[in-house]
Structure formats: C-alpha cells, structure tokens
Amino acid sequence: MTPAGRAGRIGLYLFLVTTALFFAIPLVIVVLTALKDADEARGASIFLLPRSPDLEAFSKAWSSACIGRDCNGIGGRFWNSVVITALATSISLLLASLNGFALALWNLRRAGLVLGLLLVGAFVPYQIMIYPLVRMFAVGGIHQTLAAVVIVHVLFGLPILTLIFRNYYVGLPPELIKAARVDGAGFFQIWRLVILPLSLNVAIVAGILSVTGVWNDYLLGLIFSGQNWQPMTVSVASLSATASSGVPEQNVNMAATLLTALPPLLLYLLSGKYFVRGVTAGAVKG
For the chain, how are helix, strand and coil distributed in percent, rounded to 5? Predict the structure, then answer.
C-alpha cells in the first residue's frame, strides 16, 4: 500500500472512531447515571462507574415517578406509544403501498405531477402545518385525541413512504400487472394478490423508518395527543422538569430516557439485517 493510501485509510478509521464516540459517549453517560443512586448521580462525575449499581431508578421511572401531579411513572405511557405507533405505521404502510402501486404500475394520468407534489410534501417543514391542523381538528372535535395524533403521523409520514414504495414497484415486471388485468383482476385485486406478496422487503424498510419516526416524535405528540394519549417522549420531558422534594433525581430521569429509547433501538438490532436486505433488494432505489 502506498503512503498516500495508508494515510487515507488511517484518516477514514479516525473519522469512523470519532463518529462512533460522538454517539456512544452520551449513551454511556445515560446508562452509568441510571445505575447510580440519587446522591451519587448528583455528586459524582458523570464518567465514574457506579459504586453499587442497581435498577431502582428504572423501577421508579416506570412505576412511581411523578409526571406533573400523576405519580404512576411512564409505564402507562408506554402502551400509549405502542398504540399510536402501531396504528400510524399500519395505516401509513397500507396507504403508501396503494399510492406507490398506482404511481408506478397503473398508468395513472398525471402521475408525474402527483409524484412532484409528493416530493414537495416530503420536504416541506411540518411545523408550518401545525396551526392549520390544530384549527381543523378543533373544529372537527377531535383535537388532542388518539385519532388526531394518528392522523398527523400518517399525513406527515405518507409522502416519503409512498416514494419508497413507488421506487420499489418501478422495478417489478409490468407483465405481472398486464397478465392479471387480462384475467379480469381489478386494481385492488392486483394489489392484494400480486403486489402485496412481493412487498415484504420494502415493507420492512418502510416499517422500520415509520416506527422509529413515530416513536421518537415529541412535538406532534405534545400538541395533538392530549393528556389521555400522551406518549412516552412527552412524559419524559415532563418528568425531567419534576423534582422529588425539591431536588431533581437525575438517575430517574436518565432511566426514563433509556426506557423510552430502548424499543426502537431493540427493533433495529433485531431487524437490522432485514432492513439491509430490503435496501439492497432495491427498496430505496429509483
């Protein structure tokens, strides 16, 4: 290897290590702090190992930490997040698959215009749409309900998911659709019997992206969910502002943060190989 090539490889490894440390160090601090007791978490260095690690902070964060006046922990909000994520992801994947099929293989009139509008929708900051949606939901009587928070997640996730499905379906043989139409199958029959069975790879990619985005969201959950359907991310922020006897319990805050971040992290660790397989199968090419 030439000196220039060796220097380039060393520089690449330094960059990768620096990037890994940039993301790993905050996670290590969260874990170490969550394993300490309250006094040690306040007084010791954040980089020191806990003297006697225990899971008491996790137990308190889950079942008895105070969020405002509610001292039942973030455990109940976990199921709120599960329901919101499951509904929003399921609806988004179904609609995105239908839209992608129509745009890619159904010879839809003005499909290019629709695709261009989707591209615009995918990159418009959703913050500018929040106030009009709040007013619409308030007039419709569904503001700060489960329906409201699911609808906004579907609306804001649909453009990019539709593009992912559309780009995947473009690579499918059009002869499949022609043969099905010759046999008398309609749009929904072809989608259900021909397209869906071929969509596993792209569905895994889109599903992981959707679950991660919905679960990790804070702003939409804060504005549209209401008190009864408050997700974990909003609860953690409220917990961080709550003190026990006037003294913040940083170990409980860190434990709650880690519990909130754990589901999408586990999802990626368990399904990462399927995600890579879906990407390499052409799920995001076009």
Answer: 75, 0, 25
Residue tagged 């990019």 (tokens): 160
Distance in Å from the first CA to the final CA of the chain = 37
206's CB contacts (< 8 A; 6+ apart) are 92, 93, 96, 161, 164, 165, 283
For residue 187, being part of any structural domain is answered with: yes
Is residue 64 domain-resident?
no
Token code pair at residue 142: 């569904």
The answer to whether residue 3 is domain-embedded is no
Look at residue 70 and give its three-state secondary structure. Answer: strand
Look at residue 244 and give its three-state secondary structure.
Answer: strand
Distance, in Å, from the CA atom of 228 to the CA atom of 284, rounded to the nearest integer, reads 37
- Give alpha helix (H) positions in 124-186: 130-140, 146-170, 174-182
pTM, 2 dp: 0.85
Amino acid at 49: L
Q: Coil, strand, or helix at residue 258?
A: helix
Amino acid identity, position 263: P
Instruction: Tell me phi and psi for residue 244, to 5 degrees.
Output: -100, 115
- Residue 123 belongs to domain with CATH number: 1.10.3720.10
- Give the tokens for residue 117: 């509008």
Helix segments in 2-143, DSSP class H = 3-34, 38-43, 56-63, 75-105, 111-123, 130-140
Any domain includes 265: yes
Residue 141's domain comprises 75-283
| Beta carbons of 37 and 54 less than 8 angstroms apart | yes
Looking at the structure of the chain, the number of domains it has is 1
Count the residues in the chain.
Answer: 286
Q: State both tokens at 249.
A: 């319990």
Using one digit for the tens of pLDDT, what is the confidence trace for 110-160? 777 888 888 787 788 888 889 999 999 999 999 999 999 999 999 999 989
